[in-house]
């Protein structure tokens, strides 16, 4: 009887542990600070903020496995706040003209990567073209004299 009761308690304890919801990852301080400085976004993870219904996504810190290479996911074009694809990273996929200001990315692009199957994205400083990434030239690890000058981007689809 005692052995059966002990086994039953062990089974119930195991079920309680497996049925309990997983704890959400704590929000990283950088993400909370970014959202406070650039309101209107939604935290979509401990390290990511989504704007405009997922149209624009900011990743504050790189995943632990990331080193100095462009880690732009397929289906997006990405721009980075540091040369050599250093974080934070912004990413877009929409076609047409887009201002970077509403997302806190005006005057802060230092490198970029294009990971879409067609088209190109041209970065502008108040209407003056600065640089382009696209299918023919996917990667710019340092935008040179255009550093921290991009105010808008136009994606040609």
From TrEMBL:
Coiled-coil residues: none
Signal peptide: 1-24
Keywords: Disulfide bond, Signal
CUB domain location: 52-157
Protein name according to UniProt: Peptidase inhibitor family I36 protein
């Amino acid at each position: 009887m005692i052995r059966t009761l002990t086994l039953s308690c062990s089974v119930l304890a195991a079920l309680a542990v497996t049925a309990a919801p997983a704890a959400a990852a704590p929000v990283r301080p950088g993400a909370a600070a970014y959202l406070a400085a650039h309101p209107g976004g939604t935290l979509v993870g401990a390290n990511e903020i989504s704007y405009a219904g997922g149209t624009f996504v900011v990743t504050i810190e790189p995943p632990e496995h990331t080193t100095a290479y462009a880690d732009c996911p397929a289906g997006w074009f990405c721009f980075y706040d540091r040369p050599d694809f250093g974080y934070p990273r912004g990413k877009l996929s929409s076609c047409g003209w887009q201002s970077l200001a509403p997302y806190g990315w005006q005057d802060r692009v230092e490198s970029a990567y294009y990971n879409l199957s067609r088209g190109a994205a041209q970065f502008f400083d108040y209407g003056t073209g600065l640089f382009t990434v696209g299918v023919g030239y996917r990667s710019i690890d340092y935008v040179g004299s255009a550093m921290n000058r991009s105010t808008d981007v136009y994606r040609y689809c």
